[in-house]
Amino acid sequence: xxxxxxxxxxxxxxxxxxxxxxxxxxxxxxxxxxxxxxxxxxxxxxxxxxxxxxxxxxxxxxxxxxxxxxxxxxxxxxxxxxxxxxxxxxxxxxxxxxxxxxxxxxxxxxxxxxxxxxxxxxxxxxxxxxxxxxxxxxxxxxxxxxxxxxxxxxxxxxxxxxxxxxxxxxxxxxxxxxxxxxxxxxxxxxxxxxxxxxxxxxxxxxxxxxxxxxxxxxxxxxxxxxxxxxxxxxxxxxxxxxxxxxxxxxxxxxxxxxxxxxxxxxxxxxxxxxxxxxxxxxxxxxxxxxxxxxxxxxxxxxxxxxxxxxxxxxxxxxxxxxxxxxxxxxxxxxxx
Length: 336
Ligand SMILES: O=C(O)CCC(=O)C(=O)O
Ligand SMILES: [Fe+2]
What we know:
Layout: E1 24-26, H1 28-32, H2 35-51, E2 54-58, H3 64-78, H4 82-86, E3 97-99, E4 115-120, H5 133-136, H6 147-175, E5 192-198, E6 212-215, E7 221-226, E8 232-235, E9 241-243, E10 251-255, H7 257-262, E11 272-274, E12 282-289, E13 296-297, E14 314-315, H8 316-329
Parallel strand pairs: 1-2
Antiparallel strand pairs: 2-10, 3-4, 4-5, 5-12, 6-11, 7-10, 7-12, 8-9, 8-11, 13-14
This protein binds 2-oxoglutaric acid and fe (ii) ion.
């Protein structure tokens, strides 16, 4: 799994952002424009996916109130006493809810200094994949006495479902395949939502210490909402780390492993990490878009006219189950 692959230059300091490197793209013309406008936006997205695998997206149509709503609830949940957070703790056989950080750990390049609250879409049981029912068919877990938390999470999940299906069409157009090429892969997507909470790194922590170590994401793409505290860093192709701070009103979007496989390597699933040195608590909300769990992801045949496939076919359920079983056996080591 790519989360465990690290190289020595992961610890180099990150330099400041340049929008030329992480472009800010306006999605509004894709949502409401004609075919030419849609192609133009898709081409901008494809360019960013080839160069660095990350971009900012404004004009995405998700109301700011929906984003603010989930951040408000994340703040409320992670501000609760540990005993209250613990009532919603994820367990290996029901892997939804709160995932704590390790209690005590030395500050090193393997430090994991963040907490999560993990949720999924709730779909009817999938008869084509009973094998993984435990992982995918359980309901979400909710904290006691926080009805607004459930409401804000469900609103956000619904908004992400609609938005991610649109974005998928832009990826398809950008790849030069039919715009609806992926539609059939996202009927009951095995996507995951996480609320992440990152305490500040101690001021005296060595440069090599991060909250979340360098990794790539497993699915096709991730839609990340950042609030106002930065800390996300992205690795450029030349190995230099650059900062990807929050841009108000825009999502930070990145290509994950499965989109890299579909595109036969044209789109880059890139390394990123989190280091919160901003002097404040940090919250982020990544939505990991995943296909239906019985989908087999392989380089698209349309893209192989004159190229050999660089990746083997992988079944979504098997790939995610491998990842989640590592998580649930060893929840403290998620990103190590
Ligand atoms: O919090 C962030 O900025 C990034 C989170 C992330 O990379 C992840 O959860 O996989
Ligand atoms: Fe990530």
